[in-house]
Amino acid sequence: MSLHHRHLLQIEGMHPPDIGAMLDLAESYVLLNRSGKTQRDLLRGRTLINLFFEDSTRTRTSFELAGKRLGADVINMSVSTSSVNKGETLLDTAATLNAMHCDLLVVRHGESGAPSLLAQKVDAAVINAGDGTHEHPTQALLDALTIRRRKGRLEGLTVAICGDVLHSRVARSNIHLLTAMGSRVRLVAPPTLMPSQAGRLGVEVFHDMRAGLEGADIVMMLRVQRERMSSSGGRIGLVPSEREYFRFFGLDAEKLALARPDALVMHPGPMNRGVEIASEVADDPARSVIKEQVEMGVAVRMAVLDILSRQNRRND
Q1: What pLDDT sits at residue 94?
Q2: In the chain, how long is the greatest CA-to-CA distance?
């Protein structure tokens, strides 16, 4: 089984059978992790480097744990103390990493396309852990696994993705994956936080949250990314006061009641409680699967590392 590619840079363009096969493998790793028999030899002798140009807790730790559970040697490179922070270019960094002969390179970068550029310059398999506002493929895969485990399917479900869609790489990856797998996707956001070409993505666009949540099977909330607004031409004014934003686009029990009675609540984290989601909803054990998403992240990343490592062995 393989992705027929050396790297995992985006969900866009992936075929449903490949997505399904990866989710199936990740499912086996969920069971393995829960059994306590987590140490494997699949990546013994292989080196995984986590290269994060942006801060991350869940994703970096998840990849680190996934690599170690498969037996890889895992190195976390601190960009804040590396040559990158001293002015080294991305291409110089690529040359340095290539000289280290690592096998798997996990990259998070603030600029869209950076992992793709590195993939052209290094011999290692490159995994995009989030680039700019482009994509975050493993997040979409873990979201899909979480949904499939709870609902038994992806096809035919109505998924409402709500919040700061404009700046969200998570939203983009989920749109590509969910539409490919037969879900009906709705984007719910104020006009200032909705991409201008959103309607061309095969989704429904809503600027009224109550209408967007009506009958939804899944409610996926997105973090308001003020740091991207402030770094993109001073567009902090895209969002009014936090109280005003929560009133119209924050998920609380009243708005959630418009979705299906068994609707699931998701969030990629970190959460801004009281801004895009109320604590009563985020912590609801019957509806929220936010903690389960974190667990699925380790299994999905184990599956990705497994598949790409096997593929690259065949290419060696």
Answers
A1: 87
A2: 56
- CB count in 10 Å sphere of residue 6: 17
Average pLDDT of the chain, as a whole number: 91
State the CB neighbour count (10 A cutoff) for residue 228: 18
Q: Please identify which residue in the block is written with the tokens 């924050």.
A: 250
Q: Tell me the CA end-to-end span of the chain in Å, nearest whole number.
A: 17
Provide the pLDDT for residue 80: 61
pLDDT tens string 207-242: 999 999 999 999 999 999 866 555 444 444 566 688
Q: Determine the average pLDDT of the residues in 164-175.
A: 97
Please say whether the beta carbons of 279 and 271 come within 8 A: no
Q: Hey, what's the torsion of the CAs at 149, 256, 165, 10, to 10 degrees? A: 0
Answer whether 155's CB lies under 8 Å from 244's CB. no
Give alpha helix (H) positions in 70-185: 90-100, 114-121, 137-151, 169-180
State whether the Cα torsion 186-246-197-228 is positive or negative.
negative
| Per-residue pLDDT reduced to its tens digit, 132-141 | 999 999 999 9
For residue 278, what pLDDT band results from cuts at 50, 70 and 90?
Answer: very high
Coil, strand or helix: which one is 112? coil
DSSP of 174-208: HHHHHHHTT-EEEEE--GGGS-TTGGGGS-EEES-
